[in-house]
Amino acid sequence: MPKVKIKINDVEYEVEQGLSVLDAAESVGIEIPHFCAHKYLKPAGLCRMCLVEIKGARKLQTSCTTPVKEGMEVYTESDAVVKARKEILELHLANHPLDCPECDQAGDCLLQKYYDKYGLYERRFDIERTHFEKDVILSDNLILDRERCILCQRCVRFSEEILGEKLLAVFERGSRSYIATYNDEKISTLYSGNFAEICPVGAITDRRFRFKIRNWFLIKKESICPLCERGCNIYVETPKDRPYLKNYERLQRISSRDNPEINKSFICDRGRYDLFSLEENRIFKGIYEMEEVGWQKIKKILKEHLFTIETVILSSWMTNEEIDLALSLFKDYLNLKNIYFWGNPAGDEDEILIKKDKNPNSYYLEHKKVKRLNSKSKVDFKGSTLIFGDFFRENEFVMKKIEDESFVILISPYIPSFPEKINLLIPSANFFEKEGSYTNFEGRVQKVERIFENDKVKTEYEILEMIESILRKK
Amino acid sequence: MRGFLYFFETIKGLLITAKHLIVNSFFHTLNYIFRIKTKRKGSVTYQYPEEKKPLYPRDRTLHKMMFRDDGKPRCVGCMLCVTACPSDCIYVKAEEVDGEKIATTFIVNVNRCAFCGYCVEACPEDAIRMDSGKLDFVGYSTNEMVLNLLKRN
């Protein structure tokens, strides 16, 4: 990209050509307040908050719609700009209800953030605020408060530009204008959670997060979404480590993390809401022949049965490191031939984010030439079987193939649906409790942090290390 | 030499005590027996469990939750008191009741509380107050000092 030289606040910078002044300033670390401008949406110039002074221009210019030019001189904090910001904030707040104590957006709210810096603090209007409906239900996940809306139209533009269908629009005019869906229909899209996230104020909020906890008590931890092979970047939000915050659930909210090459700053509703199901039906104790056993006993039982294993079924929810260790043990050291992998069955796909394969790491297993099992594959399982993974809750196919006499070891974080078939169940850590890397459908390797600590269970890597120590000792 | 100084100071102390005794009982007699009102009160002993010392309006005593006319707590669960609390002793949980955000759990752990009054100052709804006048709260275990403020007595 060709570069141009511009001056921002009397300092010269070199920025890419074609950028808007707002993006150019952001690329060099200068923040210009804005509501309607969004990194992945086209500029609209609606909120008038991003006004800057440009030398030579007669009036203040909206920085989101003005492209940079060679030799441009921009002032972002001059007296005229700050005065304009104060006046525009005053107009935005003329009808704003100021119910921040009840608003879920408080803490993340841009209006709060800018008013803290540029506020006038005294209301000069003596007319009553315009009143609108305060809880309009937009869909199962969304609720709209029209009084809080500042009409930045981010939601309208998101549905038009990213989803490609008109779901919302601004109705009426002037001070009476409001956001609504056509014919008051409910929004039915797989990307509805993004409307709440994209809203700069608390107008559209998440019904599943409604009134649960204030967002300044949450820590955002980086992770990826394991529900399809795209591997969207997400934040897992969990309460801070303070005494009474431990009474709240450890998983509070999933939000999107910006990655321009994978998911931009959007995630689908499956990632946003269905990940909560990973926390249910957990098992924390080992089970041997329908009786609870501890880790010492598990090791003892493994010692007896590990050398009779003939079939290993890996899981496509294992990390790259776990797969490498498992393959080095079972393929290279034990020379087993029957190594397969299995994952959630394929589902729907679309052009925006959702991919067909509903597992995070199938690419890596296929790359390592492990055979994939599906309901049509003709395989026979002989001898003892070692199974990794949790998706056997839905899978009758594999269970039917296993002979009744053979010894079955299942390593799973969840309660199995066929407990009578399993001889030894080893509890393992779920997706949030392990760290490692995943390879997405393009071959992009992404790191996952350990988000929650759990002393009761071991990760699959630790269990594999235990197996390794047993195998190599003999 | 040192012993002598100590003796001298003892007598000085006894004289101060005697002075207070005589002056206080003089005014006490004037006030309570002859009913003559003087500016000075004399004896200031309170017969504690029966008679309590009057509190000043700004004294901080045990926490109290304010309720609306319809019986709902004033607390909307904004958790500003939790944010302001330096000793992490408040636990609030809110739910949607009739389209409104209302606190359904409000627990104050008095074991941890330092009575700084920041929660009262932070509250935008005037829901939590420290003017209940209770200073003599006791219990047999620390669990009894964890108060549920939404329970009305």
What topology does this entry show?
The complex is a heterodimer of chains A (474) and B (153).
Chain A: E1 3-8, E2 11-16, H1 21-27, E3 51-54, E4 61-62, E5 73-75, H2 79-92, H3 110-118, E6 136-137, E7 142-144, H4 154-163, E8 168-171, E9 178-181, H5 193-198, E10 204-206, E11 218-224, E12 233-239, E13 253-256, H6 269-273, E14 286-288, E15 291-293, H7 295-305, E16 309-315, H8 320-333, E17 338-342, H9 362-367, E18 371-372, E19 384-388, H10 396-401, E20 408-412, E21 424-427, E22 436-439, E23 445-448, H11 460-473
Parallel strand pairs in A: 1-5, 16-17, 16-19, 17-18, 19-20, 20-21
Antiparallel strand pairs in A: 1-2, 3-4, 3-5, 6-7, 7-10, 8-9, 11-12, 12-13, 14-15, 14-21, 22-23
Helix pairs in contact in A: 2-3, 8-11
Chain B: H1 2-32, E1 64-65, H2 80-84, E2 90-97, E3 100-109, H3 118-122, E4 128-129, E5 146-148
Antiparallel strand pairs in B: 1-4, 2-3, 3-5
Residue share in helix of chain A:
10-25%
Q: Taking all residues together, what is the mean pLDDT of chain B? A: 89
Percent range of helical residues of chain B: 25-40%
User: How far apart, in Å, are the first and last alpha carbons of chain A?
Assistant: 61 Å
Q: What is the annotated CATH architecture of the largest domain in chain B?
A: 2-Layer Sandwich
Shape of chain A: elongated
The chain pair with the largest interface is:
A-B, 15 and 22 residues
Count of β-strands of chain B: 5
Shape label of chain B: elongated
In the predicted model, the low-confidence regions of chain A spanning at least 5 consecutive residues are: none
- Main beta-sheet strand count, sense and barrel state of chain A: 8 strands, mixed
**Uncertain stretches of chain B:** none
Model description:
The complex is a heterodimer of chains A (474) and B (153). Chain A has 474 residues and is of the alpha/beta class. In chain A, 22% of the residues lie in helices and 20% in strands. In chain A, the strands form six sheets. In chain A, strands 15-14-21-20-19-16-17-18 form an eight-stranded mixed sheet, with helices on one face. In chain A, a hairpin with a 6-residue loop joins strand 3 (51-54) and strand 4 (61-62). In chain A, helix 2 (79-92) crosses helix 3 and helix 8 (320-333) runs parallel beside helix 11. The longest helix of chain A is centred in the N-terminal third of the chain and has 14 residues, at 79-92. The mean pLDDT of chain A is 90. Chain B is an alpha+beta fold and 153 residues long. Chain B folds into two domains: 1-45, no CATH class; 64-148, 2-Layer Sandwich (Alpha-Beta Plaits). Chain B is built from three helices and five strands; from the N terminus they run H-E-H-E-E-H-E-E. Chain B has helices at 2-32, 80-84, 118-122; strands at residues 64-65, 90-97, 100-109, 128-129, 146-148. A three-stranded antiparallel sheet of chain B has the order 2-3-5, with no helix packed on it. The longest helix of chain B is centred in the N-terminal third of the chain and has 31 residues, at 2-32. The radius of gyration of chain B is 24 Å and the shape is elongated. Classes of the chains: A alpha/beta (474), B alpha+beta (153). At the A-B interface, loops of A face helix 2, strand 2 and strand 3 of B.
